[in-house]
Design goal:
Layout lengths: L1 H17 L3 E2 L8 E3 L6 E2 L3 E6 L3 E3 L5 E3 L13 E3 L11 E5 L7 E6 L3 E4 L3 E3 L12 E4 L1 E2 L10 E5 L6 E2 L3 E6 L4 E3 L3 E3 L11 E3 L2 E2 L8 E4 L6 E2 L3 E6 L4 E3 L3 E3 L11 E3 L10 E4 L2 E4 H4 L9 E8 L4 E8 L16 H6 L27 H25 L5 H5 L27 H6 L2 H20 L29 H4 L1
Antiparallel strand pairs: 1-3, 2-4, 4-6, 5-7, 8-9, 9-11, 10-12, 13-15, 14-16, 16-18, 17-19, 20-22, 21-23, 23-25, 24-26, 27-28, 27-29, 29-30
Amino acid sequence: MYLLALATCVAALSHCALAGKVCSRPPEVLFATINVDKSVYDVGEEIEYTCRPGFVPNNGQRKYTCLPTGKWPLNTLLCLPKRCPTPGSLQHGKIDFIDHHYQSSLSFSCEPGYNLVGTRTSQCMADGKWSGTLPQCQPVTCAPPSLPEFGVLSYRRLKPGNVSYFLDTIAFECVPPLAIIGNETATCMENGKWSSIPECKVVTCPTPTGIENGFIEFAVRRTYHYNESVSFACQDSYVLDGPKHSRCEKSGNWSTKPTCKGPCKIPVKKAVVLYNGEKKRVQNDLKEGIQHGETISFFCKNKEKSCAYTVAVPCVDGNLTLPACFKERGFFSSLVKKDPSDMKPCEEEHEPQQYNKPAFNAPFDALRSFFHYWLQQQLLKFNHLSLQGFPHGQHQSNRSPQASCHRPGPGPAALSPSPAASPSNPRKRKRAGPAAGGGRRERGWDRFEQLAARPGRLCAGCSFSAGRGPGPAGPARPPAFSRSQAR
């Protein structure tokens, strides 16, 4: 009985203690409201937070209950501002902004030469959208230009349409023969005005003067107006360099005139050159030279490789410079030595080069052999005549009897003294002395020995000793030669 009364008393005391516990106002959440707004909340009473327009809750708890301890649970709710979408691009303009959250603003502007059509600002609304519509940037327009009276100046649009916009261009024209003074075009500027308007004036040029080594075609001595032109030409063998026509300009002067460039004489007497892809003889085919701007190629010899190569030389206004490697050949050298133009090209080892060899070179070797034979006969005659100029017995002391070759004709003993050695003619005797006749004879035989010593030349097979005379065998005849080969 006693225990039951004690339990009833404890329960009553606990109920009285709980009845005395209450919760104060719940904590405030930024940008949020409470559905039940009171100063005191009983234990077990529930409240709910709601975010204001333009804000959205995070993942925190929105409902809370007053605990028996008289306190509210830990609040985890946050209300965040809404975010508006990124605005589109503004053509020929720009958009300035800080962020895209609720109550943020956008500012619109256009590039120079364009006008803004629409609102200049926009704000992010509570529904997450921008206020108004996106504006546009339209180009500035220019009114038609004001033209002078009498219609001497006209213009045309370079783009189709009847309206001129920013950066559009128009071209002006004057009624002939008037000239445009100023810019021939005008541009629509950002302020809606044209850049410049030209004028039309009368422009004349004096009678043009001729050019050196040339003339004016169909020239008439008169005053020429703007944009009229004359044409020039050159004398024979001269080449026109520059524009053929000269025009009267708006400054009252003539435009640049051409010049006449002179031909080039080839500064060699005899040579074979390459001209327009063909071999030509200077002395026959290029007597008049070549014109300005043309090119000829000279043949040069490579002694190490026994081949020939060409060096191109241009004609520049009458000046033609021979290449350093080119050697002009004399008459005798051209007969005993092979011309570089007849040698194989040096490029043949890598990239053969074909030349159009003229037909006249075909029998040239036969002609050369025939001339060798004729030349040796002339030298032998010269030697025979030289012996007759010796005083009696002089050659015996100068010539050795051990010579392996001897000269044909009468022997030294059969020769009579020359009239040049007669005492009655002292002037002739002086010229016939050893210093004159003897030295001349010595030089003749020296040259003959040099020629005969060459293989296949004048006296093939002859040997020479102190006697200096060709042997009994005599000079060898050249290869067979027919008249048909010489043609």
